[in-house]
Every structure is written in C-alpha cells, then in structure tokens.
Write a structure and sequence with these properties.
Elements lengths: L1 E10 L2 E11 L4 E2 L9 H8 L7 E6 L2 E2 L5 H7 L1 E4 L11 H8 L6 H14 L1 H5 L10 H13 L5 E4 L20 E3 L1
Parallel strand pairs: 3-8, 6-7, 7-8
Antiparallel strand pairs: 1-2, 1-4, 4-5
Bound molecules: adenosine-5'-triphosphate and magnesium ion.
C-alpha cells in the first residue's frame, strides 16, 4: 500500500532523514521507532506533503506522493495525526470534526463516520460544543485521532499516538482496523 524508498529530507544544512525505506502492506500496523531527533516526525511530514523531500520516493497505491500538496494526499486516503495534535483550539469539538470531513461530499457517509467515532470516543459527543482548546490533553488526543478518521483514510499516520491518552477514557481498541504507522 505504502512504499518508501531511500527518502531524504533536509532542513538547510541539516539532513534530518538520511534514506528511510519501509513498506506498509494493506492491513498492517507499522511502527517507526527512534531516539528524539531521529527524524520520525520529519518523515511523516514528508509523506503528507508538509515538507518536500530532498531525495528518494514514496508511493501510495503505486502513485508517487512526492510533489503533491497536502490536500491532494488527504484525497488519496492518507490522514495524519500530527505531533502536538494541531487542533483548532478556538473551534468547538464538533467543528473540529467537521473540518476533518471537509473534503467529503456524501452526507450519509459522513453521518456514519460520526456514529463510528462517537462509538469509540463517546466523550466527544458529550463535549461537542466545548472549545477544543479547553479539553484535557488526553481528550485533545482523542479529538485529533477522530478528526483524522473523519477523512475515512485508507492509511492513518499517527505521530506519538499514546501521548496522554488512556484506555479508560477511550474505547480505542478497534480503530486499529485502519492502518497505522507511528
Ligand atoms: N523546522 C526545522 N528546522 C531545522 N531543523 C529541524 C526542524 N524540524 C526538525 N528539525 C531537526 O530535524 C531533526 C529530526 O527532527 P524530528 O522532529 O523529525 O525528530 P523526531 O524523531 O520526531 O523526534 P522526537 O522523538 O523528539 O519527536 C532534529 O535534529 C530536529 O532538530
Ligand atoms: Mg517527533
């Protein structure tokens, strides 16, 4: 499904990713493990079009992602839960979720995704009118994951997914049916 070959990313003089190669088959969960500063976040940012790679290739369902804009990559079916969550803090929980569905056209499909999300994260239904910035850290993480799931991705890229979220507050065990890479 995803094939990354010799991906390189630079910030000016600094080469942050020095030739990453990996494959994510359909249905697989792949983790990227490395020390602080190893280039995990940078790799995910390159895969979602937020930064341009300096070399190598990344193909999703046989289409090169290199040079595509972030919104085109979302359209292909890749969603990113970024490090630090990057919610819209002054918008409500419901508005954040609707932003996740921005590119979707079929209303009935969106309604069923909302139902799936509320099943896994019931707190997000209860807090629909609360500003996202006033949720607890773990609740914000749930909202960030839920917002990404609103795109109905084929591939879900999660950066630091377990940061501040707990099993007792989310029924998250089964959302791994979408594919994850750390
Ligand atoms: N915007 C930037 N400008 C310059 N250097 C950067 C920038 N962003 C990241 N770097 C550097 O690139 C390297 C890789 O950073 P990155 O954030 O990808 O690491 P990481 O593996 O995600 O680390 P962590 O586990 O701490 O989240 C680091 O040395 C970092 O300082
Ligand atoms: Mg990181």
């Amino acid at each position: 499904m995803l094939e990354v070959r010799n991906l390189r990313v630079r910030y000016g003089e600094v080469e942050a990713v020095k030739g990453l190669s990996l494959q994510v088959p359909a249905g697989a969960i792949v983790s990227l493990i490395g020390a602080n500063g190893a280039g995990k976040t940078t790799s995910l940012r390159a895969l979602t079009g937020l930064i341009k790679p300096s070399g190598g290739d990344a193909r999703f369902e046989n289409m090169s992602l290199v040079g595509l804009a972030p919104h085109d990559i979302v359209r292909l079916g890749i969603a990113h839960v970024p490090e630090g969550r990057r919610l819209f803090p002054k918008m409500t929980v419901l508005e954040n979720l609707k932003m996740g569905a921005y590119l979707r056209t079929r209303k009935s499909g969106v309604a069923s995704t909302f139902a799936m999300i509320y099943e896994h994260f019931p707190i997000l239904r209860e807090r629909g009118r609360q500003l996202a910035g006033s949720l607890s850290g773990g609740e914000q993480q749930m909202l960030a994951i839920a917002r990404a799931l609103m795109t109905r991705p084929k591939l879900l890229l999660l950066d630091e997914p377990s940061m501040r979220s707990t099993r007792s507050t989310s029924r998250s065990s089964s959302w791994s049916r979408t594919r994850c890479s750390r």
